[in-house]
Amino acid sequence: MLLRFAAATDVGQERDHNEDSYVVDPKLRLFMVADGMGGHAAGEVASQIATTSVKDYLRRNVEVLAKFASSENEPRDVLNLLRESIEHACQMIHDHQVAHPETKGMGTTASTLLIAGPKESPTAFLAHVGDSRIYLFRGGRTHQLTEDHSVQNELIRMGKVTRDSFDESPYSEFRSSVTRALGAHSKVLVDTLKVSLEAGDHFLLCSDGLYSYLEKEKLSPLLQTTNNENVPDELIAIANDSGGHDNITCVSVIVGTRDDDQAQDVIEIVKKSLLGHSLSSSETWKLLGISQVRRLTTGQQLYAGDSSADAAYLILDGTVMVNSENETLELTTDHWVGAGSFFDQTTRDGNAVCTSDTAILEVPCNRFLEVADDAPRLAARVFWAIGHSLHSRSGN
Question: What pLDDT does 261 receive?
Answer without folding.
Answer: 47
